[in-house]
Write a structure and sequence with these properties.
Blueprint (H helix, E strand, L loop, with lengths): L1 H8 L1 H22 L6 H21 L3 H12 L5 H28 L8 H41 L3 H13 L1 H15 L1 H13 L1 H6 L7 H20 L8
Length: about 240
């Protein structure tokens, strides 16, 4: 109980709970919207989804500062690729929060003249680029660990001939060997696996909104739920969060 109270006291924890509820409503309303006797339930689910979205916007009003502080911190990273990817991700996330705050002002009626489609498009593009930078960082981590795994195999080979035979075997069924090694690496590094899953799931919304790859509210809702559950898990268990 104390752990739950501590979790919900954090703004990120509340945001993830609201987010999970929002996408659950989206998925449920999509699944039952074509049933004749479920119109009222669908309407209530969509109203709850809208309320969760508005609540999350209010929770995120101060997140621009957090994103800028995080960007400043990642500029000190020793490796060039993670430093660039994470700094770019945090800066574009800060721009996303600016657009999000403007949209919140529009939604509560404080700035009714705001061009909502334009600001929403900007927000989506910033969010999309931020996710791409996170995925680039994930791929760098995976590539680095793949290289480490190959080096370990070289170290423990009994002879260079055996190593050449192994490399030839890998070339024969390259995709299968690559996928097997990738599976082993992700299995050994749960934080990297969770971060990769979360970022891939987060892509569904921007891809659909920007028209890059159209899906439907069911797919977006499912991906949003999965991403939210990963976010809740990493907040509740910080050791599962990929370190910067």
């Amino acid at each position: 109980m104390e752990s739950f109270v501590d979790f919900t006291n954090r703004s990120q924890g509340r945001d993830q709970l609201f987010r999970a509820t929002q996408y659950t409503c989206m998925l449920l309303s999509y699944l039952i919207e074509h049933k004749a006797d479920k119109e009222k339930l669908v309407m209530k689910l969509k109203q709850l989804e809208s309320s969760m979205s508005s609540g999350r916007k209010m929770f995120r009003l101060g997140n621009m500062v957090h994103a800028l502080v995080a960007a400043r911190r990642t500029t000190q990273l020793p490796n060039v690729v993670p430093r660039f990817c994470l700094t770019a991700s945090h800066l574009t996330r800060a721009l996303y929060f600016v657009c999000d705050a403007v949209l919140w002002l529009k939604s509560v009626g404080l700035q009714p003249d705001i061009d909502k489609p334009k600001w929403r498009n900007w927000a989506t593009k910033c969010y999309y680029f931020s996710i791409l930078m996170n995925l680039a960082r994930d791929w760098y981590e995976i590539s680095w660990r793949l290289e480490q795994a190959i080096q370990e195999k070289k170290k423990y080979n009994s002879s260079w001939d055996n190593h050449n035979q192994e490399l030839n075997c890998v070339k024969c069924d390259g995709l299968h060997s690559f996928l097997l090694l990738l599976f082993q690496i992700l299995k050994k590094h749960p934080p990297l696996l969770l971060d990769l899953v979360k970022n891939l799931c987060d892509l569904s919304g921007p891809l659909d909104t920007l028209g890059i790859y159209k899906t439907n509210p069911g797919v977006i809702g499912f991906c949003g739920i999965l991403s939210s559950l990963v976010g809740i898990l990493t907040l509740a268990s910080p050791h599962l969060k990929l370190k910067q």
